[in-house]
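#lab-general

N.A. 3:47 PM
ok so I finally got the sequence cleaned up, no stray characters, all 243 residues accounted for. can someone with queue access submit it? mine expired

B.Y. 3:52 PM
send it over

N.A. 3:53 PM
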Amino acid sequence: MTDPQPDPFHEVRELIRSRDRAALATALPAGEGAPAWPYTSLVLVAVDHDLSPLLLLSDLAEHTRAIANDPRVSLLFDGTGGLAQPLTGPRVTLLGRAAKTDEGRLKRRFLRHHPDAEMYAGFGDFNVYKVSLERTHLVGGFGKIRWIDPGELLAVPPLSDLADSEEGIVGHMNDDHGDAVQLYATTLLGRKGADWVVTGIDREGIDLRQGGETARLAFDTPLHAGNGARGVLVDLVRRARAR
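B.Y. 4:20 PM
back already:
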């Protein structure tokens, strides 16, 4: 039996999923008859199971007004932090169309990743937007540049049953297995602190947060089904304790 071919875009997906903020570019109207201005702003972001970025935006913000006029947006996810030569590091630009959504699961996923947003998420002028991906541009460093089609990027498609059960899994881990969560962060990832919580789980890993710090623990192999999450999480605890 031949070994499976490595997934060339696994690290791209991990970079996107591990960021909790991005630079959002929109087309800002410039007046009747005048071309729109490129307008860039900083936004908090969560990523759905299918890699669609999720944004919580105020109707009063310039970028939201721009989206109402032209839903095309791009988001830059920067993986160059801490490098002595940032241009040698990876960054990914996602191109897509932003649309308002009232799907409760998406709002809850965003708020788990950004719990402080609970303070204003209920205000009448705030709404969740989902960005449907159309193209992806990867700059992995000098000379490592290419466009990626959504089908290539999603070589590991999402699991609908995992998306449906995610909230229960996250709540169970945080409420009943907080010691395991700390082991994930401190022993397996080498992070400091004792108040880590799980904010999300997808087919390829789990997301963690402690205050303003985030972390991403990738699985060795993608889950084959949502009901396989328990076994993987238990195995990670065993591995951490063995160390």
